[in-house]
Amino acid sequence: MAATVSEHLLDWYDAHARDLPWRARPGQPAPDPYRVWLSEVMLQQTTVAAVKPYFESFTQRWPSVDALASAPEEDVMAAWAGLGYYSRARNLVKCARTVSALGGFPDTEAELRKLPGLGDYTAAAVAAIAFGRRAVVVDANVERVVARLFAIGEPLPGARKTIRSRAEEITPGTRAGDFAQAMMDLGATICTARDPKCLRCPLSSACEARRNGDPARLPVKAPKKTRPVRQGRAYWVERDGAVWLVRREGEGMLGGMRALPDDGWSARGDGVAEHSGELLGMVRHGFTHFEIELAIHAVDIPLGDGEWWPLDRLDEAGLPTLFAKAARLALAK
DNA sequence: CATCCGTGGCG
DNA sequence: TCGCCAAGGAT
């Protein structure tokens, strides 16, 4: 019966696969491992719609892993600005340089897993999609589909072991890459979190949750904590058509990204001393585990270690969204 | 195992 | 309007 699930799903995929820029077109040879890897990293916790324009610009600017490996890190960080989870961009550069030095991507799941930024999911996905390996690819889509297919009521994250074992059982020996992408397409378009479209699902007849009557209930998740609201200040220092920008250090919040000087609200210990100046306005922004209310103050003297950035090229600075909002506010005054 | 780490869209 | 959610990884 396990074979039946993958066969139904692959048939459905052959007819309904989404046409995505990182996928090989029908008739083309296997997809370029560089493009598979790049897309998989960009897609970590990020929607297809958000990734598309970044994937296009990255592959145009850096067509190969060697090209990316040769790029200055700050150029890559700036190009990543707005996509979020900036440790991905830091690891992207590290990984590209490692792979370039190796002469290419390793072609096994175990070797891929050793590269920076590739965890269990991405190593399995690249091994299966780019190299045709049989690998068990488990992301949030697969977790949802499998939890419903087998009516696994145990809440996440405790259910992960059970889900992985069920996913292993239905993963076919060949076309594991297509199978993985089919599961993700199914999860993204049919077996969605809020409103599963069971009437169009190729697996509906095998689905235990549907038989039980309430597939949308699964998978069960632990309740989330409410996000606290932090307050902070950022400083707008403008002189001769330029603004003073710093580059945030380290691996923490927005690490490696250009930014306005701030008072250390993100608790990284490298904020500048509190200054007062005209209050230009407030910016509110939500992060994963807290919200920030940022007061934007105009100040006359440059603060901290930074550089003057021409205002007419500010969009090229690569400011993360919080500071892009702050800049928009300041420039509108 | 829990926490940290962005962002934008959707119901 | 707002909580939830997305092709997770590192520590």
Automatic annotation (TrEMBL):
Q: Name one Pfam family in it.
A: HhH-GPD
Q: What does this protein do?
A: Adenine glycosylase active on G-A mispairs. MutY also corrects error-prone DNA synthesis past GO lesions which are due to the oxidatively damaged form of guanine: 7,8-dihydro-8-oxoguanine (8-oxo-dGTP).
Where does the sequence pass through the membrane? none
Q: Which reaction does it catalyse?
A: Hydrolyzes free adenine bases from 7,8-dihydro-8-oxoguanine:adenine mismatched double-stranded DNA, leaving an apurinic site
Q: Which gene encodes it?
A: mutY
Enumerate the Gene Ontology biological process terms. Answer: base-excision repair; mismatch repair
Q: Which keywords does the record carry?
A: 4Fe-4S, DNA damage, DNA repair, Glycosidase, Hydrolase, Iron, Iron-sulfur, Metal-binding
The protein's Enzyme Commission number: 3.2.2.31
**What name does UniProt use for this protein?**
Adenine DNA glycosylase
Q: Which organism is it from?
A: Qipengyuania soli
What does the record note about the cofactor? Binds 1 [4Fe-4S] cluster.
Main EC class the enzyme belongs to: hydrolase
